[in-house]
């Protein structure tokens, strides 16, 4: 996962207009492309969520009082880092356009 984080830091996190014909050029069907991208985005989102929670668990302390809130600067920096990452859909789209996604469409018998 760490290679994804280093790779996506250079991506623009803003949404940009794209040419639909160039997106669907590989399959000829925009819906197939969107399905591939959305499944990869869901996978990325889940992986990033698991990684973030595992890193934040290192700082977790078990206390009985709800009023006790400890601010940890490292924990805040980790959270901010993950918040600044581009949306998983943008990451998946760029992976698709760069030819980094391998996928196959099942034939219905």
Question: How would you portray this structure in words?
Answer:
The chain has helices at 2-8, 20-23, 30-57, 73-84, 88-97. The chain has one domain. The chain is built from 5 helices and no strands. The model has no long low-confidence stretch (mean pLDDT 82). With 109 residues, the protein is an all-alpha fold. The longest helix is centred in the middle third of the chain and has 28 residues, at 30-57. The chain is elongated, with a radius of gyration of 18 Å.
Radius of gyration: 18 Å
Q: Which parts are unreliable, with pLDDT below 50 for 5 consecutive residues or more? A: none
* Structure annotation, total helices: 5
Largest sheet report: none
Which band does the percent of strand residues land in? under 5%
Tell me the total number of β-strands.
0
Principal-axis shape:
elongated
Structural class: mainly alpha
* Helix proportion range: 55-70%
From N to C, what is the helix and strand string? HHHHH
How far is it from the N-terminal to the C-terminal residue, by CA?
A: 36 Å
What's the domain count? Answer: 1
């Amino acid at each position: 996962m760490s290679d994804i984080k280093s790779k996506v830091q250079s991506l623009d996190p803003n949404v940009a207009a794209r040419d639909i014909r160039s997106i669907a050029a590989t399959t000829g069907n925009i819906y197939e492309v969107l399905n591939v991208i959305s499944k990869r985005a869901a996978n990325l989102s889940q992986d990033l969520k698991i990684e973030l929670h595992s890193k934040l668990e290192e700082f977790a302390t078990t206390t009985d009082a709800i009023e006790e809130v400890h601010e940890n600067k490292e924990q805040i920096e980790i959270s901010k880092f993950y918040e600044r990452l581009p949306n998983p859909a943008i990451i998946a789209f760029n992976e698709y356009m760069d030819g980094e996604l391998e996928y196959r469409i099942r034939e219905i018998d």
